[in-house]
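Here is one chain, start to finish.
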Amino acid sequence: MRKTQVREILFLVVFWVVSAAFIVTYEASARGFERTGSGAPYNFPEQLLIALAITALSGTAIASFEVLYLSRVLRRRPFGITLVTKTAFYLSCIVVFTSAAAALIQSVSLNRPVWDPAVIAAFTNYWASGHALLTVLYWGAAVLFGLFVLQVSEKFGQGVLIDFLLGRYHRPKEEQRIFMFMDLRSSTTYAEKLGHIRYSQLIQDCFYDLTDVVTRHHAVIYQYVGDEVVLTWDIEGGVTGGDCIRIFEAYDATLRERASHYETAYGFVPEFKAGVNAGLVTVAEVGEIKKELAYHGDVLNTAARIQGKCNELGQRLLVSEQLKELMAGVTEHAFNPMGEAQLKGKAQPVQIYGVEVRGA
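Its structure:
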């Protein structure tokens, strides 16, 4: 299980546990902390403990299923199918776990086993009341809100939603970052061979297969530009474990593992080329109708130009001297000097290094 998945599961569980504490406290306050609607003796600490325990257990199960399986299975499905499937799943879970909580609370309150007629009668009265429907609606809203926050965060990019909420980049700031510009090799040839529709499907497949690789190597997808994707890391995140290099090898391995699919669907296995650079950039919120974080600076332009030299130099992965120096002693990869290149828009030539892609 990856760190990002653990964080997502913890967020959902904590949010739902807090929601449980709120609703139980609110109901107790509304009743004056005296008696339940069914007539059973009311014990607020006891009921709170039961609600929190059931919510923590059921929330962990539901959140784990959502993050580790359901979202992944439905990733390539149309939005409508995803919406209907998840709605049915969560409504079923809410009814099941709400019933379990209600039955256990009645059992503890009456000090009788769950199957006792008095407990069953109290449980039946609970579900016959309008209060049960309100409880289901409340939990439906809590579950959907938690998932909505995760979805919005995913669309903005990992960690970006928090930055927007805190206004971290409302005014431009400088940061040290790593950027990788990764582009499909022979894209013009493939586009002519496949036609616009199938070529677009190819790009969709490629970027779907990139998703898990990105999260495993702690990258953030900054932009998709046609058949090119721009990835970024903070310096520590990209250098640690050599992630800003290993991600390219991991993605290449993923595409080769899916070779049979690509051969059948498109007649070839796609390959990408990439250029990587590191340095100081400016980051700021831009836009009003469509707001996003934008990075500006020579670091990005140089990374893009370096990637553009891959075909000329016969390399699939090129990095700048700045990136090579950052990776010294961190990775076992060999950096082969490609000489100085005069990049478009640069007054001074830039030293470029080729990195052998292992397993290719």
